[in-house]
Design goal:
Blueprint lengths: L2 E7 L4 E7 L5 E8 L6 E6 L5 E6 L4 H14 L4 H4 E8 L10 E2 L2 H9 L8 H14 L4 E6 L9 H4 L5 H6 L9 H15 L7 E7 L3 E7 L2 E5 L20 H10 L4 H10 L2 H6 L4 H9 L3 H24 L5 E5 H6 L1 H7 L12 H4 L7 E2 L8 E4 L4 H13 L2
Parallel strand pairs: 1-6, 6-8, 9-12, 12-14
Antiparallel strand pairs: 1-2, 2-3, 3-4, 4-5, 7-8, 9-10, 10-11, 13-14
Helix pairs in contact: 1-4, 11-12
Bound molecules: adenosine-5'-diphosphate (ADP).
InterPro entries: Ac/propionate_kinase, Aliphatic_acid_kin_short-chain, Aliphatic_acid_kinase_CS, ATPase_NBD
EC number: 2.7.2.1
Subcellular location: Cytoplasm
């Protein structure tokens, strides 16, 4: 048997998944959390769905990988023997990384250098890489970047209209995120409709806690709603998405907020949470159903923003063949799917209310037979995409 371990490392936790290289079945998954706190936690689920949890102090990521190895051993899996490679999610690859990349010393230095652009993410991803390389020194480790899929965006999409020299010096441009998910969904959608991805113009809506949209032309990202950071674009659980940049300056000058306070405001206290006091879409929908005006407005703003991007991408792509919804909200909220695409029959987009509310979980069509544009729900699987890209690089 050969398997790929997929690692998604945060600053105080990491998730992992062991995926069979051939069948693509998940052989085990787990979460190591509260690293560096007095009581850490580890949960491991084996192939049969059997879950074990324990609490213990986990001083750093290296100790976390030791805990993970013990969990594999306890469930009778010789993970080292089966492993062909480890795939790591890395958030920011800058303009340097446009494809999955085998992690060498130089690549590690590059990922570290890009920390200025992603201070919350790249150092945490790197901590996971270093610990995993110690735990599995004999296999290749591959970095799969959230930004890589969007490196095909043309300059007109990724350039901010500011002083060009300043932008270049500080690498200020749009990078886009969720690339692994957008790529997975665009390919899965093409397979689902039975056409080559090269022939399709697609719009992908990744609507989770974080949310972004992507215009995919022939399998290549030509535009996406997130920018230099994941703050730009759609209304999210706690992020504002697009906002007049002058608002930031106004709040600093008039409300006396510091730069850090504005950062926290826009990233952690805005979006659905800022508008309605609830950051979770289920809670917002429930409150709106009960007549809560703030929750209704939050939904209205959320839908309005997503529709603006639908319009933009319809024009950029000169028409669209497939629109796919994915992630927590996209996969589970018929209400938001129907509101985002309401009244677009003249653009060939027509949702079938019965299909849209079907309880099915897999990839499925939700447009009518007459709809010129095929509208799909496609469950995303970023871990599987990372495993596939990792295998492609190591030649598995
Ligand atoms: P993350 O970005 O953290 O991976 P997810 O993709 O899991 O997020 O999406 C989480 C979001 O999906 C939350 O806002 C949650 O409320 C929303 N969600 C999950 N199930 C439903 C549902 N049935 N209806 C509406 N929203 C849902």
């Amino acid at each position: 048997m050969s398997a790929v371990l997929v690692v998604n490392s945060g600053s105080s936790s990491f998730k992992y998944q062991l995926i069979d290289a051939e069948s693509e079945v998940t052989l085990a998954s787990g979460l190591v959390e509260r690293i560096g706190e007095p009581t850490g936690g580890a949960t491991h689920t084996d192939a049969a769905g059997e879950r074990t949890s324990l609490e213990l102090e986990i001083v750093d990521h290296t100790a976390g990988f030791a805990v993970m190895l013990e969990a594999f051993a306890a469930s009778g899996v010789d993970v080292v023997a089966d492993l062909v490679a480890v795939g790591h999610r890395v958030v920011q690859g800058g303009a340097r990384f446009f494809e999955p990349t085998i992690i060498t010393d130089l690549v590690r230095i590059n990922i570290d250098e890009l920390s200025g652009l992603a201070p919350l993410h790249n150092p945490a991803n790197l901590a996971g890489i270093i610990a995993a390389q110690k735990a599995f020194p004999d296999v290749s480790h591959v970095a799969v970047f959230d930004t890589a899929f969007h490196q095909t965006m043309p300059p007109a999409s990724y350039t901010y209209a500011i002083d060009a020299a300043l932008a270049e010096k500080y690498r200020v441009r749009r990078y886009g995120f969720h690339g692994t998910s957008h790529r997975f969904v665009a390919h899965a959608a093409a397979e689902f409709v039975g056409r080559p991805v090269e022939d399709l113009r697609q719009i992908v809506l990744h609507l989770g806690n974080g949310a972004s949209m992507c215009a995919v032309d022939g399998g290549r990202s030509i535009d996406t709603s997130m920018g230099m950071t994941p703050l730009e674009g759609l209304v999210m659980g706690t992020r504002s998405g697009d906002i007049d940049p002058a608002v930031l300056l106004y709040l600093q000058r008039r409300a006396g907020l510091s730069a850090d306070e504005v950062d926290t405001l826009l990233n952690k206290r805005s979006g659905l949470l800022g508008l309605s006091g609830r950051g979770d879409m289920r809670d917002v929908q429930t409150a709106a159903d009960a007549g809560d005006e703030a929750a209704k407005l939050a939904l209205d703003v959320y839908v309005h923003r997503a529709r603006s991007y639908i319009g933009a991408y319809l024009v950029e792509l000169r028409g669209v063949d497939v629109i796919s919804f994915t992630a927590g909200v996209g996969e589970n909220s018929p209400l938001l799917r129907s509101r985002i695409l309401a009244g677009l029959e003249s653009f060939g987009i027509e949702i079938d209310p019965v299909l849209n509310t079907s309880p099915d979980r897999g990839a499925r069509v939700i447009s009518t037979e007459n709809s010129r544009v095929t509208v799909l729900v496609v469950p995303t699987n970023e871990e599987l995409e990372i495993a596939r890209q990792t295998l492609a690089v190591v030649g598995g």
